[in-house]
C-alpha cells in the first residue's frame, strides 16, 4: 500500500543520510549546505538505487583542499563498507594514489598503463605516466653502454628499469623521482656521484624541494631532490652550494630519447 511504500522510502532515506553522515540536516536546502555536504548528498542520491557500479566524475574537484582530503577518506571508507565497485575519473594524482585499488592511466584516449597505485608510481611504463603520476626528473642526453649501463655527461650510471627496449649506443632519457635522489653536501667530485649546484629551495613544511643543475652535462641539466625538512636544515643548503648526487640504480628508469 501507499503508506507502506512511503515508510520504506523514509527508512531508506534515513539510512542513506546516516551512511553519509548528514543526520539532522534533512530539512536544509542545498544552498544551506557546505560544498562537502553537497557532495555527500550527491553520493547518497547515487547510492539510493543500490547500483552495481558507482561512477564518480571528479567528485572533489570544486572543494577546498582540506575538505577534499577529509572527503576522499570518507568516500573510500563508504565504498569499502558497501562493497560496491566504484570507478572514479580524476586529474588529481594524489586522489588516484590514495583512493584507488587499481589505476588506469589514459593518454589521448588510450590506456597506456594499468595496475595498483604503487606499481604505477614505482614502475611507470612511459614518460607520460611518470610525469602524470607524481613528480619525475628527466635527464636527457644519456647513451646506453650495455645491459643496464648508461653514460651521462661522462659519468656511468646504472638503471635497473628499462620499460622501453633500448639498443646499445641508443640515445636515452633517464628518469628518477625527486625523493629517490641521494644528496650529499660536498664540493669533492666522486666517480659514483653527479656534481650539482643548488639553484633554489622550496620549503613545504615536512619536506624541502631542492632545485639543482648538473654541472657536468652540457647544457647544464635541471634536477630536483625532495628532502625531509630536518635533513635540509642539517645540510645548510643555500643558492650556489655544490653537492654530490647519487642516483640509486633500483630507482632509475631508462626511456627512449624523445
- Please report the distance between the alpha carbons of the first and last residues: 69 Å
Shape: elongated
Give, in spatial order, the strands making up the sheet with the most strands: 7-6-5-8-14
Uncertain stretches of 5 or more adjacent residues: none
Number of domains: 2
Total helical elements: 7
Q: Kindly state the mean pLDDT as a whole number?
A: 89
Gyration radius from CA atoms, angstroms: 25 Å
CATH superfamily of the largest domain: RNA polymerase II/Efflux pump adaptor protein, barrel-sandwich hybrid domain
Given helix and strand content, the structural type is alpha+beta
Tell me the total number of β-strands.
14
- Biggest sheet: strands, sense, closure? 5 strands, antiparallel
What is the CATH architecture annotation of the largest domain?
A: Beta Barrel
Q: What oligomeric state do these chains adopt? A: single chain
Which fold name corresponds to the CATH topology of the largest domain?
OB fold (Dihydrolipoamide Acetyltransferase, E2P)
Give the H and E element order: HHEHEHEEHHEEEEEEEEHEE
InterPro entries: ABC_SmlMolc_Importer, ABC_transporter-like_ATP-bd, ABC_transporter-like_CS, Mo/tungstate-bd_C_term_dom, P-loop_NTPase, TOBE-like
Pfam family, one: ABC_tran
GO molecular function: ATP binding; ATP hydrolysis activity
Protein name: ATP-binding cassette domain-containing protein
Amino acid at each position: 500500500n501507499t503508506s507502506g511504500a512511503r515508510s520504506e522510502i523514509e527508512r531508506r532515506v534515513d539510512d542513506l543520510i546516516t551512511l553519509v553522515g548528514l543526520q539532522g540536516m534533512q530539512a536544509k536546502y542545498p544552498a544551506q549546505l557546505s560544498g562537502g555536504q553537497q557532495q555527500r548528498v550527491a553520493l547518497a542520491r547515487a547510492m539510493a538505487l543500490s547500483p552495481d557500479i558507482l561512477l564518480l566524475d571528479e567528485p572533489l574537484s570544486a572543494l577546498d583542499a582540506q575538505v577534499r582530503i577529509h572527503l576522499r577518506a570518507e568516500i573510500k571508507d563508504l565504498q569499502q563498507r558497501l562493497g560496491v565497485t566504484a570507478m572514479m575519473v580524476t586529474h588529481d594524482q594524489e586522489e588516484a594514489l590514495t583512493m584507488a585499488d587499481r589505476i588506469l592511466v589514459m593518454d589521448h584516449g588510450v590506456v597506456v598503463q594499468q595496475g595498483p597505485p604503487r606499481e604505477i608510481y614505482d614502475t611507470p611504463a612511459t614518460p607520460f605516466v611518470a610525469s602524470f603520476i607524481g613528480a619525475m626528473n628527466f635527464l636527457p642526453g644519456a647513451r646506453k653502454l650495455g645491459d643496464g649501463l648508461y653514460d651521462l655527461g661522462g659519468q656511468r650510471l646504472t638503471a635497473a628499469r628499462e620499460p622501453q627496449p633500448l639498443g646499445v649506443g641508443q640515445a636515452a632519457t633517464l628518469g628518477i623521482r625527486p625523493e629517490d635522489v641521494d644528496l650529499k653536501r660536498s664540493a669533492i667530485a666522486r666517480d659514483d656521484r653527479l656534481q650539482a649546484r643548488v639553484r633554489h629551495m622550496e620549503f613545504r613544511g615536512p619536506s624541502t624541494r631542492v632545485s639543482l643543475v648538473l654541472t657536468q652535462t652540457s647544457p647544464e641539466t635541471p634536477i630536483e631532490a625532495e628532502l625531509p625538512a630536518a635533513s635540509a636544515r642539517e645540510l645548510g643548503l643555500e643558492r650556489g652550494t655544490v653537492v654530490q648526487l647519487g642516483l640509486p640504480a633500483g630507482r632509475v628508469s631508462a626511456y627512449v630519447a624523445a
